[in-house]
Amino acid sequence: MSEEKTVSFTSMKAGTVKDFEIIAANDRQTAKELPARLIAHLQEMAKDDGAYKISRLDHVLQCASRAHRDNADDDWVIAALLHDLGDVLAPFTHGQVAGEILRPFVREEVAWVVSHHGIFQMYYNTSLTKVQRHSRDQFKEHPYYQSAIDFCENWDQCSFNPDYDTENLEFFVPIIKRVFAKTPFAS
After folding, report:
1. What is the number of other CB atoms lying within 10 angstroms of the CB of residue 15?
2. pLDDT digits (tens, 9 = 90+) for 134-168
3. pTM exceeds 0.85 for this model
4. Residue 150 counted as domain residue
5. Cα separations (Å) of 167 from 41, 63, 66, 106, 153?
6. Are 152 and 121 in contact (CB under 8 A)?
7. Tens of pLDDT along 12-70?
8. Mapping DSSP to helix (H, G, I), strand (E, B) and coil, where does residue 110 land?
């Protein structure tokens, strides 16, 4: 007897317990494949330079290399590696996209910083007005404010250097696998 691979319904309200068990099994398989999917997306980022001197992949690899060399833990290294994952798909909300991908697997602080790093990076954009550049100040009382400043200052804004000794993607694969093997929302 073969196991069903698809649901019987065309409207969720008509779904049976068995249908939702099929979906749950599929979701578990998708979660197991997440590291490979993230690695494939990172590889795609090598094709886009975003008008910088290096590719988007090289930028995040450089960020992650800096974090790793600063003895950051896996949560911060993976944040540095994946913080711009949404650049091409969601250019106006890329941080939120990456933050939501990370949120089930990293500490709240790390997910918050990734979600908000775009606002904190505006500080370095000299084409913006003073008010726009200081829009991060709206979070001055937030407990992760300084962490976001440090993330951007130490790892993100300075990682566009074609001459930096950057680790390759394979170096970070074990960290990707460790972080995404965690029980979701256990951090």
Report:
1. 15
2. 999 999 999 999 999 999 999 999 999 999 999 99
3. yes
4. yes
5. 17, 10, 9, 22, 20
6. yes
7. 999 999 999 999 999 999 999 999 999 999 999 999 988 999 999 999 999 999 999 99
8. helix
Q: 182: exposed, middle or buried (C-beta count within 10 Å: 0-12, 13-18, 19+)?
A: middle
65-70-75 Cα angle (round to 5):
75
Q: Which residues contact 184 (CB under 8 A, 6 or more apart)?
A: 31, 104, 105
Q: Name 141's Cβ contacts closer than 8 Å, sequence gap at least 6.
A: none
Count of structural domains, the chain: 1
Burial label for 8, CB within 10 Å (0-12, 13-18, 19+), is: exposed
Task: Report d(CA 179, CA 78) in Å as an integer.
Answer: 8
Has residue 105 been placed in a domain?
Answer: yes
- Whichever domain contains 55, its CATH number is 1.10.3210.10
Residue 106: domain span: 32-179
